[in-house]
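sorry for the late reply, my laptop died twice this morning and i had to redo everyting from scratch. anyway the thing you sent over, i finally got around to it. pasting the sequence first so we're on the same page, its 793 residues, then the predicted structure underneath. double check i copied it right bc i was rushing
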Amino acid sequence: MLKKWFVRLALAVGGIVIVGVLAAWLLLRASLPDLDGEVLVAGIGAASVIERDANGVVTVIADSRNDLAYALGYAHGQDRFFQMDLIRRDSAGELAALFGGVVVDADKRHRLHRFRARAQRALQLMPATHIEILEHYAAGVNQGLADLGTKPFEYFFLGVDPESWLPEDSALAMYTMYLQLNDDRASGETRRALVANVLPREVYEWMYPVGTHWDAPIQGEAHVPAAIPSADVYSIRDREFTIASAHEVGQPPVLGSNNWAVSGAMTESGRALVSNDMHLGLGVPNIYYRARLRTTDDVIDISGVTLPGGPFIVAGSNGHMAWGYTNSQGDWTDAVALVPGEQPGTYQTPDGDREFDEYVEVIEVAGGEPVTVEVRETIWGPVLDDADHLDYEVVVSWIAHHEPALNLGIVDLETATSIETAMAVANRMAIPPQNFVVGDKDGNIGWTLAGVIPKRGDYDPRLPADWSQATGWQGWLSGDEHPRIVNPDSGRLWTANARTTEGEFLATLGRGGYALGARAKQIRDELFAKDTFTAEDMLAIQDDDRALFMATWRELLLNVLDDDVIAADPELADYRDLVMNWTPRAEGESAGYRLVRGFRIEVQRMVFDALVAPVRDVYGDDVVLDIDNQFEAPLWAMVTEQPMHLLPSNYTSWNEWLIDGVRASRDYYLETYDGPLADRTWAEFNTARIQHPISRAVPLLSSFLDMPSEPLRGDSNMPRAQGSNWGASERFSVYPGDEANSLMQIPGGASGHPLSPFYRAGHDDWVQGRPSPFLPGPAAHRLHLVPAASSAN
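ok and here's the structure:
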């Protein structure tokens, strides 16, 4: 009897579970959009069409620019609303209203910038035509959301309802890119100041150079590093240094990208050929959304990638010219050393003492009490709340805080017909300043800086400066003052976040953390290795994972591990064999590549830490000090010239110190992992973690929501810049006017819904580097948006 009761209970529980799973599945399916048919909508001027190809890539066809915005908004709202919600909440500091107290600190950091209020102000300054585009886009987003069978599935997990999209939210989406691409807290200046305050000036300048011998600017030459400071200037020979426990780190995300162009003289068709891969953090869904936007009169026919939240193509081609971006890494944020005024609550300015503008920001917290943040603002920007270790307060002057920082000028690229027109548009665009590379169907190519650029007074922008006198920013460059290069004699242009220029141009752009030039150099050299190019040739460059930069470190490492060292320490023999027999690429089963990379990271860390030991004496061991991207110049000089006055006192030779670095790195692998060193492959380390926000909180859903966990080729200092959760957010190579023979890849799929057939469509092409078409394919689905009023008639 008891056994029968258990059986009945099990059947009942099983039935409840099955019913629950079925109900959840039906609810989840209800939030999938309709792909075909006709829907009546309010707010559109004339009937429009949303086509989707077999991979879900959208083509929007409409009579007017406003209706294009509406229909694109409708598609974004149906496919990507939760992503858009996170984008706007991130920059506004409103994530805690969804996720609760775990993200309050992140919201506090962003509330310093008061982007919600700035977005509202930005709209007030826009021309009426641009406001109309944003309003139609918002109406389309909200209609698309409303036409789903139920709210997007993420909101059921969070237990909340989505909030309507506002025109100002598109401005917040653009501010999110400022946060991703710029130093929003002037941390570069404040952290360098700690070093400059303690070390001799000559040593500081040597440790933070303009560039290295790896530089490959499009204007100028590689940098010649300064000589190592002599012993009478600086010595650490009287200090001991203990190597801390080693650790393996991924290089910081390369949030910036590659782009290049060759002139029509180098293609069979005579058209320019433009390539772009923008490196950003990777998640599910991908930050970008492919689309083609067409008006029925063919005045607009533009293809590329959109940012969900914005009613425009970010990068792509309009049939006349194609363009792409890389983050310029110029100096767009300055630290102002605040000078207190005579009265409490005031500060000094060139026009006398002023009171602070004070604001109280209220952060709503799901499941908790609201949290308030007090923000003090000056005429230059907000006062930092975390400028640790400095004996003065710091104000952040960042272009994102100023009124010229945001506009919708990018829409003018849709009808630009030449590189001259496109560059003029780019110079007027208000975006985080970008290297803008463009080519047209007549074979012309050009480079300029897109975005707003400040004019600086007479001060050193690399360190905090007193702006209480007549210094600081003194207006903005006009479009004609932006640097430009048009049709260079070589017929080639390239940028990769490294220094692009020199002299007056470089002084204008400043030094905001340029990437090491190794990636740019590898791209440049490949462009000069051939005289003619196809889109497939460009994809091969984008996919290049050769470890040319790391090869120099391998040679150094093998010189350190000579036969005498191995004879004295046979346990290093396996390590040396793996290094000697490496695969010279950041790929697959190469343990040797990973060991060489780990050795360089360890040596960089121990040399930097030894040099800045006096700084930590003053400010404490917990002080955060950044290793500059150009530190490779002094680092390489140190390990090759091996100056005795910069060797810690507990070592008798540099080789002895470097061998200890090898041991520390090797021991890390042996102690952290099971198995021999040969198992420590690059594939093991560089495995995809491209996650949906919900799976981060609920790991059991990872296999359902995330992209496949698989090895990814590439690393930082090579064209295929790739980490486990950052890398190329798109890749394209396009002939303007011949988009049908051009290429495009993108991680993840068009849809943000895990039950959609488009959720992962195209992702494997991106992983494998396989060619895939730039334009959407033939329409597999057509959804007609019909104005409700006209249908009623």
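The chain has 26 helices and 26 strands.
thats about all i looked at so far, will dig more tmrw
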